[in-house]
Structures are given as C-alpha cells and as structure tokens.
Amino acid sequence: MAGGGGGGVGSRVKVVGQVERVDGATLSYAEFVERFMRPNLPVVLTGLTSSWRSCHDWTLAADRRAPDLEFLARSFPSPLVQVADCSSREFSDQKRLEMSMREFVDHWVGSSSNGDSDGSLLYLKDWHFVKEYPGYVAYTTPTFFADDWLNMYLDSHPIHRDSDIANHTNEINCADYRFVYMGPKGTWTPLHADVFRSYSWSANVCGRKLWLFLPPSQSHFIFDRNLRSSVYNINDDVSEKQFPEFNNTKWLECTQEQNEIIFVPSGWYHQVHNLEDTISINHNWFNGYNLHWVWNLLHEDYKVAKDYIEDIRDICDDFEGLCQRNLAANTGMNFYDFFVFITRFALANIVELYHIQNPKDTDFISAETANHFVYNLMSIRDVASKMVSTEAFNTENICNISEQNRSAFSDIIKILEEESFRRLLVALSKAYNYIDRGQKDCLKMKDSSQKGCLSVTCLKPDCNVVGDITSFMREIHGPMDLVTLIDSALSDR
Ligand SMILES: O=C(O)CCC(=O)C(=O)O
Fold first, then answer.
1. Which of 4, 203, 273, 347 is the most buried (most CB within 10 A)?
2. One matching Pfam family, short form (predicted)?
C-alpha cells in the first residue's frame, strides 16, 4: 500500500498495549532514569514545550495546530534539504531527493490545494536545523535528554580520523544528530531501529503522529530466514513466506499529540505516521546507559562486514583495515572511531571526577554529579573490556592502526591539551550542571590560562589534574590500557 497505509494499523499487526504518558514537568531526572532510561522503555512526556520559540513562530497565529509554512520558507531558506518520497522505496528506506526549502514548501502547499497533484508525498527529514541556524533558539533540550554524548562529541570532534574514510563520508563527519522533520498528513517513516542503536526523542511542534513499537526481545520476528532483510512496512500484506515469524510480533502503540515528546529507547523497532500536517524536532543520542547497545551493534555489523569479504582475506595486505573501512561506510562508525570516542569520554570523566573529590575544589558540587562520572566510567570500562579480545585490537592489527587514529587515542598529555578536548569538557560540565541543578550556561568559567588544570569549573590555584592522570599512565595502546586507566582513577578516589 503506497503511503504506508495512511496511518491505520494493518490487520496482522497485533497491538497489545499503549506507551505510558507522564507529566514531564513533575518527573525528576532520577525518576526518568530509573523508570525509562535504564530499563530501556518508551514514554511520552507532556508539559515540556510551552516556552519553545518554535511552538509559537512555526505555527499559524489563527490556528496553532497548523504549520506556518510561509514563515519557515522565508526565515530558513536552506538551499538544500533532504526529502523522502514516501511513495517510493529504495532498498530499506524511502527514496531520498534534494531540493531547496522553498521548493519543498511550494510542493506541500500545491499538493494540499490541488489534492496531491503529482501523487508524491514528500517528507522533509534529517534537517540539521541547529547546525544551520545556530542563532535561532527554536527549543531547549529537556534535562532528561541532556546527557547526550553523541552530539556533545560531534560539536567538538570529527567522528572519523582516517583520511580515506573522512573524505568519503563528509556529511556524516561534519553532521550532528539534531533534526527537524516536517511533512503533510500521510507522510510516514518505515520500520527501523535507530542509527547506532541510539536513543531518540521526538517532540511535536504541531501535528500528531502514530507510533508502533516492537520491543527488542522480538526484533528477530521481523527478519527473513537469513536475518538479512527486515519488514519495510508493517501495514503491507507482509509475506508469510519471506517473514514467517512476523505473526508472532506484539506491538505497543502511541498517538503522540501536539507538544508531546516521545522517548524512543535503544533497539526498539518503530514505524511512524503523521496523522496531520506535522513538524517535529528529533535528536539521536547515547550515553553511559546505552553505550553497550552501540558497541553490540558495531560488533554485529563488523561480523557481517568480515564474513562478506572472508574469501579475499589471503590476498589482502590489510584485511582488518578493509573490514573497518566497510564497517565505517555501512554503519557510520568503526571500532577505531568508537575507541577514540570512548577514550576521550573516559578522560573527560576522569578529569571531572578528580575535581569533585574534594568539595572545596569547585563551586558546583553534588553527590549526584560525582555519581554520573563514576557510572559513566564503569560503563566505558565495561565496553572497553569487551573490545580487548577483538581481532581489530590483537597485537598484529594494533601495529597497523593508522597514525591519525593512533594519535587520537594514545598520547594522554597531548589529548588533554587539545582545544577540542577542552570543548568536550565544557560541554560535559554544562550538561551535568543542567541535569543536577536545572541551570544552563551559568557555570563560572575559570581563567583558561591556569597551568596544570583543565576543568572549567576548577577553582583550585595549584590544581594538577594532568600530573595526577599521567601518574597512572602516559600512553594508551588499546582497550586494555583504557580498562587499567579507569581502574586506577576509580581506586584513587
Ligand atoms: O517522525 C518520524 O517520522 C520518524 C522519527 C523516528 O523514527 C525517530 O525519532 O526515531
């Protein structure tokens, strides 16, 4: 059925429950963690968007339920946006087109006044609005979603270091994962689990969406016998021959109203339909609670990438390098990118933790803040210890790691002195200040020229966090060293 079934639920889709709805204004961060983030369960949060500029500016004064398309096209005239044609499939996604914001809006307005003139339902997706219009503060990320390592990292670091990967994946390399989606009634998103198995959150600025969710324990039911392809549209007449277990699936459903925010947990497959003309804001993110999901996905995709070229292993100079290049191309990140990422987050958390060992050393102290850093380090340690035994980090392959990747994780002093690392530290401090004190952008920043110290919140004149960390270790050669470094930092508390 073209258009994904118009928002209805097909006869073979068994809906067994609804997503819980909670008042976000009275929910504490700790409750959100214990009830939803840690157990990896979806929730709809209400009462969090009333002060957003987008809810006012992007909707018509005469009817706040309708998008102000003219305002959007005039104020944000992006020359190139990505648009999905919801009526045509390309591999496992919808066919993507590129056009200007003006062309997109004209098509939308034209098709609603002529009744879908050329039959195509166009859906603007993955618009990097925050990156493109940083001066316009359309919304504030709710505290529940502020512990976002993915976007914090991409604001200061490239995701790939290897020049042959970085040059080919320019968009992924520069991008963030903060998006605006907008489309007329009937536009939809096919069944999928999110990039890197990240969490996502999605807020309806206007309009309504129907979500269908499948828990991760049932993911295998939507794959074919070879575990290669998955169901594209659950409202289609899904072939029993191709997907023999689809009948076993049991779905949760949710109608998300205007101004509501949905939390999408890691690894939950979902299909989404716009029930009205809808604009939403959407972030993908991960942190210490779902880092293992990211690693598990990379590991699974790596095994597939390796199996695929196993028969040319003997004629390859650098078989592991080829596997990693293919993994980066298919999944968006490879083991070395991920190792650089977790190494830098481990160092950032160690630096911050060092500063709160003695409450007199900083002006913002809380036991909760210390707990975040300890929890983060434990989760990074857990993932690093799983990386130790992989082929990518065996003695032979460690020697073949490119200079760009090696220098990004090895020399601790060099990392600690980098401007990009400093920016990551600032972002981390701000995020936990916001989460624990509900305050954004109000940290007292110290003089950045203070010697020996890196933390933006440190008030100690003779701070020597660099000396302290390098007394444990000066060079990281692979995941085992990262485990040892984290153990030393935690046992030194
Ligand atoms: O709103 C949509 O169409 C899709 C959003 C989505 O899949 C997500 O937030 O993960």
1. 4
2. Cupin_8
Whether 392 is in a domain gets the answer: yes
Count the alpha carbons within 13 Å of 137 in the hemisphere toward its beta carbon: 5
| pTM score | 0.94
Task: Give the domain CATH number at 22.
Answer: 2.60.120.650
Q: Are residues 320 and 443 in the same domain?
A: yes
Compute CA distances 149 → 21, 306, 354, whole Å: 26, 28, 20
Residue 282, ligand 1, Cβ within 6 A: yes
Q: Which residues of the chain have pLDDT under 70?
A: 1-11, 114-119, 166-174, 357-365, 441-460
Report d(CA 319, CA 402) in Å as an integer: 14
Q: What is the pLDDT of residue 252?
A: 98
Q: Do residues 241 and 339 both lie within one domain?
A: no
Q: Confirm or reject: Cβ of 210 under 6 Å from ligand 1.
A: no
CA distance 199 to 189: 17
Residue 412 has what pLDDT? 96
Q: Is there a domain that residue 461 lies in?
A: yes
Range of the domain at 215: 2-165+176-285
Q: Nearest Cα to 335, choosing from 301, 298, 363, 289? A: 298
Length of the chain: 493
Q: How far apart are CA 111 and CA 282, in angstroms?
A: 25
Query: In the chain, how long is the greatest CA-to-CA distance?
Result: 71
SS3 (DSSP) at 101 = helix
Closest atom of ligand 1 to 201 CA is 9
Choosing from 125, 181, 279 the residue with most ligand 1 atoms within 8 A of its CB, the one to mutate for a pocket test is: 181
Q: Is 266 in the pocket of ligand 1 (CB under 6 A)?
A: no
279 and 305 belong to one structural domain: no
Tell whether ligand 1 has an atom less than 6 A from the beta carbon of residue 256: no
Listing DSSP states for 111-125 in one string gives HHHHTSTTS--EEEE
CA angle, 368 then 372 then 375, to 5°: 125
Quote the ligand 1 centre to 437 CA distance (angstroms): 30
204 Cβ closer than 6 Å to some ligand 1 atom: no
Ligand 1 pocket: which of 280, 281, 293 to mutate (most atoms <8 Å of CB)?
Answer: 280
From 263, 285, 307, give the residue that closes a domain.
Answer: 285
User: Does residue 187 line the site of ligand 1, with CB under 6 A?
Assistant: no
- Ligand 1 proximity of 200 Cβ (cutoff 6 Å): yes
| Same-domain status, 267 and 371 | no
Q: Give the separation between CA 24 and CA 353, rounded to whole angstroms.
A: 29
236 CB neighbour count, 10 Å cutoff:
15
Distance from the alpha carbon of residue 233 to the mean position of ligand 1, in angstroms: 14
- Beta-strand pair 43-46/21-23: parallel
